[in-house]
Amino acid sequence: MRMCMLGGNGFMCMLGGHGLRLVLAVGTVLFAASSVAVAQSAKPVSFIHDVAPILKENCLACHDAKKKSGKYDMTTYEKILAGGSGGEPIVPGNPEASEFYELIVTSEQRRMPPRDKGEAVPKEKAAIIAQWIKEGAKLDAGIDPKADLVKELRIRWKPPVPPKVYPFPAIVNALTFTPDNQHLVVGGHHELTVWEVATGKLVKRIYTRAERAYGLAFLPDGKLAVAGGRPGQEGDVRIYNIQAQGHKDGDVEILDGVNDQAVLVKHLFDVDDSVLCLAVTPDGKTLAAGGCDRAVRVFDLSAGWEKAKLTQTVENHADWVLGCTLTPDGKYLITAGRDKTAKVWDLQAKESVVTFPEHKETVYAVAVKPDGSTGFSVGADRQIRTWKPNGEGKQVKSAGGHSDEVFKVVAHPKQPLLATSSADKTVRLWNADNLTATKQLTGLGDYVYAVAFSSDGELVAGGSYDGTVAVWKVSDGSTVKVFNASPGLTSAAASPQPGPSKK
Ligand code: HEC
């Protein structure tokens, strides 16, 4: 899991090298554009638009509110000017006399970032900082000197419009059937796409702020809750009305879930990194979502999603929360963590009741029997394990079968059945009572990150790293449809993408 150690880079362990390359490439292009703008125009350097992004990328890992290296907290403009234990590091008007700038460009041993800890700030970025100090190290009008910079940057960031035709396959991290089971909603690139199950035809696109959707759940009234984010940058949970009026682009309906408040009906919360999992009780009264900040936020929706109330923030894992589910009665929260454990949290007593340690490697997902009597977890150890969510967290049984990491496990809505999805390119069905494998479902070409049952329990769908989605019949395992959920992607473009890198 070396990829996972890159702090702040988001969900790289499950996205592999390609995701990382994509993120870096986008960042570079954006930066090149903004530095050219600075060089060509006589406009003064903007702190928030030009300087703050450089500090976020090169300095904040060590100078945030937690670490404060050198007692220097750089999270607000005011604190940046105030400096750390050595006093004010910026002399407005004079970059050469400013320790802040000198430490970035110095050829001496003591440099920022420290030589043994990171690359030097690129020349053109250092030049922007020098110019900003020369112009008086000012803050842009309208920003509070005490405002959190990362948050200010997030507010200003505008999501791109998704490409009409995808030049690369969209990684499918999440999918769900619509309540009538006629369509599948699939996470795309800054959008959700809706496909007709019977034909594999694209019918609707819902643009979203989030670059990726990691968790999708329909509420009882048909609104769609979505957890997602932009790796290393932001994460959120929002509620959409995907039945709202959009506009037609040929046969496809386009809904603007970024700006249109008839589509984006509720913003539950946002944080500094991806939200990776989402769970809603069948009665729609409790919603839980967790991710890279190690926390799971629990909302009470019993007065309707319009009046959603944050009831608690559960910090029960030592690392990213990768999976979560709720017992149907809304009493227990079950979570999976990169800290190699699955855990149970009592939502009424607000305490941790069970830690299940048997996987000994990353636990990616959890599920629970509808009666709440049995917990299921899967992980990098390729096993599916069952255990008692109440009591001591003792293992009941474990079963192998998948030949690579297991990413998801979901419970069938009616029968004692489970579906798992794996890096071995398959989806498997299991008898939930005795953990015997009943079917192996093939047809996907790469890591299978997403799996979902239809609400009537008749179909199961899997979504893959290469954008492919397959739908099978639960009864006999026969294939209903296979299609690539990347709008407009031709099969020629779909093939050459390198597969995700392994650990
Ligand atoms: C990998 C961690 C790391 C990164 C990244 C980093 N610093 Fe530091 N910084 C430190 C440590 C540790 C100290 C305290 C030791 C020292 O002063 O040399 C420090 C001290 C400083 C000080 C002196 C504070 C004082 O009052 O004594 C300044 C100024 C500073 N850093 C600026 C920056 C800037 C600007 C960046 C980004 C371009 C940056 N640092 C990136 C670790 C880091």
Model description:
The chain has 503 residues and is of the alpha+beta class. It has a domain at 31-156. It has seven helices and 30 strands. Strands 1-2-3-4-9-8 form a six-stranded mixed β-sheet, with no helix packed on it. Strand 3 (191-196) and strand 4 (202-207) form a beta hairpin. The model is unreliable at 1-40 and 492-498 (pLDDT under 50). The chain binds heme C. Heme C binds next to helix 4.
What is the count of β-strands? 30
Structural class: alpha+beta
**SS element count, helices:** 7
* Bound molecule kinds, no repeats: heme C
What share of residues is helical? 10-25%
Order the strands across the largest sheet as they lie in space. 1-2-3-4-9-8
Uncertain segments:
1-40, 492-498
